[in-house]
Each structure stands twice: as structure tokens, then as C-alpha cells.
Design a protein that fits this description.
By secondary structure, this protein is an alpha/beta fold. Helices cover about 45% and strands about 15% of the residues. It has an eight-stranded mixed sheet with strand order 7-5-6-4-1-2-3-8, with helices on both faces.
């Protein structure tokens, strides 16, 4: 039994490259060539996983011609986070490398990411210090970065960079959803994994169109709030909601008590005053917060049992002929 386990460990792939694709027909062939060239130069065993996120152009057709490659086709567009989650769950490498499919990330940076990872880190994130994007995209990203540092402070300059390296154990109990791909370092740091960052090359987009829109900004903001909540109160939501409940109930009770004192001892008429109603409302709101905290505490204990997925796969095509 021990020899079987040792053999399995010995033959385990060293590197897995996971790349989500959505309408990147002009990029996939050059992207695959660049990835293969970089990985072969390192002399390590590897696999390449492309996740076709419901592309409506010829992305799937172009990918079917490539080898070595594992191609996962979604039935429709589920988003970059779902594509990453699916590709990572399929990956067999001890180190998982992720990148965008628009040729703006450079596979030559894989070596630097892995070198930094070997210094003892669990996650190494790329930093597009000299970012080659339109001003509007950089402006929105900069605003999101400032808000992210205020709320979750993951000590990363550029969490939105998809070029990252992870040890495979990072995802044994981690599932991605929503627009969480931007906050993977923060999520893993909350779980106790060590995170580092290095500068990487960023190229201007040559083919295809950017998928970054204002709707993704809104979704990203909401998911940022979710990460903040889980960072602070994942294991104790009752502390947040219960605390608010006690605060509101206490303030409401104090206000009602003041009104009663004014009415009983000073004969102050209350029929034309709104404050008694405000006090009663605050007490009821406090009770509601407390009940919500209890329900959230129960829900947190059964959150994401590890079997649920927020995407469906149409097929998986493995073409590993050399």
C-alpha cells in the first residue's frame, strides 16, 4: 500500500495551467503555443486546461486542434469565476497556474511565480505594475483596489491580475462563486495560507474585446462585501447581527424610557410627537437583527457542503498527443 502511494506521488503532475476562455478565437492558438514553449523550457511535467466559458465564436473549434490540451466546454457563459473553479477542480498538478486567455499575461512569468512560491508561500499573485489597458479600465480597477484595501486588506496591489500560482492544497476545501476570482488571495489568506506578490509583464490586447464592463464592477463590489463579511464574521455571524440588535434595542428602549419619564413626571404630551414610535421601531428592528443573526449562525454551519456547483459542463475533450 505504501509503495502504491509513493508511486502515485512520484508520478503526480508538477504543473497545471488553467485558463478560462470566452470568445478568444484570435488568441487561443498563439496562447497555447506560448504556454507550451514556456512549460517545456522548465522541463517539468505539465497539463494545460482551457475552459471554454460558452464562447459564441470559433474558440471551441480552434481549441479542438490543439495538443496537449484538456478542453472543458460549458453549456453557456457562466463567468470567469465558474470557469476557474471548474478548471482548478480538474487540475492534477502540485502547482496550479492561472492566467487570462487574452494574451495580455505572459507565460514566461511562470518561472518567476514558481520561484517565489518555493520561498515558502502558498499563493503568488502577479502585479501588473505597468498595466497596458485603457484609462477607463485602469481607473475603475484603481477605485476597486482602494476599496478592497479598506475592506479586506489582503496586502496585494493587483488582486484582479489572473496570472497567479497556487499550491494545490489551497483548493481542497475552497470553492469559488460569484465574481470571487478577484479575491482568491484574500479568501485564502483568511483561511491561513501565505500570500506573496511579484511584478509581471502585461501586454496590450491585440485580438478580441475586453470583457470588463460596469456590471462586473458592481458584481465585484458586492462580492467584496461578501469577502469582508466572511473575513470578519464567517464563524460568528451572530456577533455582527446580534451586536446590531442589542445596539438598536438598547437605543430604542432608552428612547421609550425617556418618553415615559417625560409623560409621567413632567406631563409632556406625546400624541403629537414621533419619538415614541421611533423608539418602538428601533426595539423591533433590534429584535429582527437578533433573529437574523441566529438564522445566519445556523446557515453558516451548513454553507457550501462541497458538492454544489454553479455551472454545468457540456463535455470534456482530452487531446494529449504530442
Amino acid at each position: 500500500m505504501e509503495s502504491d502511494l509513493a508511486h502515485k506521488h512520484k508520478t503526480k503532475l508538477e504543473l497545471s495551467v488553467v485558463c478560462p476562455l470566452f470568445n478568444e478565437e484570435g488568441n487561443v492558438i498563439k496562447l497555447h503555443e506560448a504556454i507550451v514553449k514556456s512549460l517545456k523550457k522548465m522541463g517539468r511535467s505539465f497539463e494545460i486546461i482551457f475552459v471554454n466559458d460558452g464562447s459564441t465564436d470559433k474558440t471551441e473549434e480552434r481549441c479542438r486542434q490543439l495538443s496537449p490540451l484538456t478542453l472543458i466546454n460549458f453549456r453557456k457563459n457562466f463567468g470567469q469565476t465558474a470557469a476557474l473553479d471548474c478548471g482548478i477542480s480538474k487540475a492534477q498538478g502540485a502547482i496550479i497556474l492561472t492566467m487570462d486567455g487574452d494574451l495580455q499575461n505572459d507565460p514566461e512569468d511562470f518561472t518567476k511565480l514558481i520561484k517565489k512560491l518555493k520561498e515558502g508561500y502558498d499563493v503568488v499573485s502577479g502585479w501588473r505594475k505597468n498595466r497596458q489597458d485603457p484609462f477607463s479600465k485602469k481607473f475603475l480597477s484603481r477605485g476597486a483596489d482602494l476599496l478592497r484595501k479598506f475592506l479586506i486588506n489582503d496586502n496585494i496591489h493587483d488582486s484582479g491580475c489572473s496570472l497567479k500560482a497556487y499550491r494545490e492544497e489551497c483548493f481542497r476545501d475552497t470553492h469559488l462563486f460569484g465574481e470571487m476570482h478577484r479575491f482568491i488571495p484574500a479568501v485564502l489568506k483568511i483561511q491561513g495560507f501565505t500570500v506573496a506578490e511579484i511584478e509581471v509583464v502585461h501586454h496590450p490586447r491585440k485580438f478580441g474585446e475586453t470583457k470588463y464592463t460596469w456590471t462586473r464592477v458592481v458584481k465585484g463590489f458586492l462580492d467584496m462585501i461578501s469577502v469582508w463579511f466572511w473575513k470578519k464574521y464567517a464563524n460568528r455571524p451572530l456577533h455582527l447581527f446580534g451586536g446590531l440588535g442589542i445596539l438598536f434595542s438598547g437605543m430604542g428602549s432608552l428612547l421609550v424610557l425617556i418618553m415615559l419619564i417625560l409623560r409621567i413626571f413632567y406631563a409632556v404630551p406625546l400624541s403629537n410627537r414621533i419619538w415614541p414610535m421611533v423608539g418602538i421601531f428601533m426595539v423591533l428592528a433590534g429584535i429582527q437583527f437578533l433573529i437574523s443573526g441566529l438564522l445566519a449562525d445556523i446557515a453558516a454551519k451548513s454553507y457550501y457542503d462541497g458538492e454544489r456547483k454553479n455551472y454545468t459542463v457540456k463535455d470534456v475533450i482530452e487531446n494529449n498527443n504530442s
